[in-house]
Amino acid sequence: MEFKLIKTEEQYEKYMNRIDEIFHAQPGTKENDELEILVMLVEKYETEMVGEFPNPDPVEAIKFRMEQLGLSQKNLAEIIGLKSRASEILSRKRPMSIEIIRKISKELEIPVEILIQPYETV
Q: Model-level pTM?
């Protein structure tokens, strides 16, 4: 597929449809490379058309990324080192420390800018 900056709604729809088709591409594949390029082009277009999107909630971003990677709470516990801490973070009972933010960012490839945002705890 030849990639170009998105200039029309038709082109945007075409790229979005292709993203849907290859959304679960495995890392390291040509389809995953294509997916990353298409997402960048779509994000640029959307930003220009409607402005910046707010960053997602940190806990929701973690849950979403875990789902994408097929990870469980147990896997998150292995990343941060404590089973109870993973549960507390996902249930919003405890905020993340800087050390935990760094680990999650590195292992789940979530930008630190998303994880450091304030979020509600219960």
A: 0.58
82 lies in a domain?
Answer: yes
The half-sphere exposure of 25 on its side-chain side, counting CA atoms within 13 A, is 19
- Cα-Cα-Cα-Cα torsion 24, 27, 29, 33, nearest 10 degrees, comes to 80
2 is a domain residue: no
Calculate mean pLDDT across residues 13-21: 94
- Per-residue pLDDT, averaged over 81-103, amounts to 95
Domain assignment of residue 101, given as a range: 58-115
Res. 51: pLDDT tops 90: no
Residue with token string 């490379």:
33
Token pair of 87 as six digits: 């549960």
Distance between alpha carbon 112 and the CA centroid of its chain, in Å? 11
